[in-house]
Amino acid sequence: MTALTMVEAIRDAMARAMEEDPDVVVLGEDVGHDGGVFRATEGLVERFGEERVIDTPLSEALLAGLAVGLGAQRMRPVVEFQFDGFLYPAIDQLVNHAGRLRNRTRGRLSCPIVIRAPYGGGIRAPEHHSESPETFYAHMPGIRTVIPSTPRRAYGLMLAAIRDPDPVVFLEPKRLYRAVREEVPDDGEALPLDQCFKVRDGTDVTLVGWGASLARILEAADLLAGEGIEAGVIDVATLKPLDAGTILDAVRRSGRCVIAHEAPRSYGPAAEIAALLAGEGLFSLLAPVERVTGFDVPVPLPRLEDHYLPDAERIAAAARRLMGYR
Amino acid sequence: MQQVASFAVERTAYLNADGTCAERLPAFAGDRDELVRLYRSMVLTRTFDAKAVALQRTGRLGTFASSLGQEAVTVGIGAAMRPEDVLVPSFREQGAQILRGVTLEEIFAYWGGDERGSDFAGPREDFPICVPVGTQAAHAAGVALAFRLRREPRVAVCVMGDGATSKGDVYEAMNAAGVWRLPLVFVVNNNEWAISVPRSKQTAAKTLAQKAIAAGFEGEQVDGNDVIAVRAVMERALAMARDERQPRLIEALTYRLSDHTTADDARRYRDDKEVSERWKAEPVGRLRGFLVARDWWSKGDEEKLLADCAREVDAAAEAYLARTGQPATAMIDHVFAELPAAMEGQRAAIAALGARAGGEGR
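Above: the input entities. Below: the structure tokens describing the complete assembly.
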């Protein structure tokens, strides 16, 4: 078994799902012989043919609506958008149709579709290529928003997303696409959606994040450990529906919580988690909830990007502040 | 300089406004029963629309979009499609829906604010009404792509209004239909008004049909107040889509005799004189004139039909009004295939609200 990058793991999951189910088709711009701009679909057209790996016209508004039509016909389209910043034209279709077709027909029609997009910053990309729009999708009823943070979780969550009977927006942290390699058995085993993953134990403070921020959080946990602060780490993975129980359990033990994300601060997902802790978690808290986030600005071009993205030092500093509360 | 491409847009029409005939008719028009079936469907649609407006005006139905004056378009579509085809409508296609087996009660229920109205017992794969203008075009492309990939001899029919043709997503769907040669027929119900914006302010294009040409397939016009013509061009287009994978756009020229919806007052922006002038070309009287001229329709037939349609519509309206409400929890039970654990608390809250109100929604 060879160790895989995240982008390879995602490709393996798509290939596995296509093997299992003839209704799974992959669509998107340049997903065919080019293999996708990040090569996530490399080799799929050679293996499954042009009727299952379909190069589309350059039509982002079409792509999501096309998936709705295919899904209503019980196919399982996996649609690639090239970048987070080009996913916005799909919002109309996602919020008006994909997220509500099942409900508005009382289950007669449904949308078993996966919308994939590389997301987030940190690769010195051009404008509109470093967005963190997860809040938009997490706010839409009827849609799951899933973000992997390791190759293995990417494989298992992608399989789960494709097999799920409802629409999933699957945001792939492009900074992690080739950052690490990990053994990923191609065993067809999905990981559960709607569940957070506890990735590190520690009862002094709980660090919560997803996607590329999770790597920064783990670096922060190492820094803190060197100072004698034991930080627990939670990978949220499915932003919505949110697994409140895992987060609450961890914070009940630690009494302190830092949430980190690249998305802008106001109304970002950290606000939702902070509200959860201020409600059901209130009497566990020893300290205020800290958010380490992007700012309420358009994501800067690469020269200022490092000041925008949460890094290990900012996360660790937030945790240290919380340790001042007893 | 050389000419590298040239195009033509044709228009099909058979019946004159007075019911006389301009051209040699298609074969089906030689069959009285077929024409009476079309006539009956148009009268039923008009009766339904009138009842729906009346129910809205008396507070027993929500906002409603009448198809008054456009019955030939919607009935022509429904009559030409096969049961296994899929209709992807906008929100003025009740005539086609009724012919495809959507019940009058279901349509009342939808406009009455009840999602169950879109859970058609009949055409299970047809799309529900689409309110965001033009967004359904991409769905039709997806449905047609599924047919193509599975090699099924079925056609998706996407209906939209004249205003929808100004939208970028409609063009994206047309472009895909052209490049993939999808079994897809677009029908533009050009009723000349997009709420208050007339066709002349919608686009500088000479026809809406020609918008297909840029997408690489044929567009044509049809007299949308001539149900024989609509059905004939629809049958031709469906056969081309089914057998030869040729998408097509049909622009049906008609006129919106009603307000946009019951929430609209068209007198704010258009002259009553224009409307009364256009009543002279309306489709129901036109086909009736043709039938009467052939001695295929009598006063007695007319009276009986009107009474039958009124009875059918009234019965459906009564059944709709007598429907029991949905439980409050119906709002959450169909959002996902299975209720996510994270939503159980919200479901309990909704159930409590429902119980407070006595169990059922209205």
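Note for the figure: Chain A has two domains: 3-183, 197-323.
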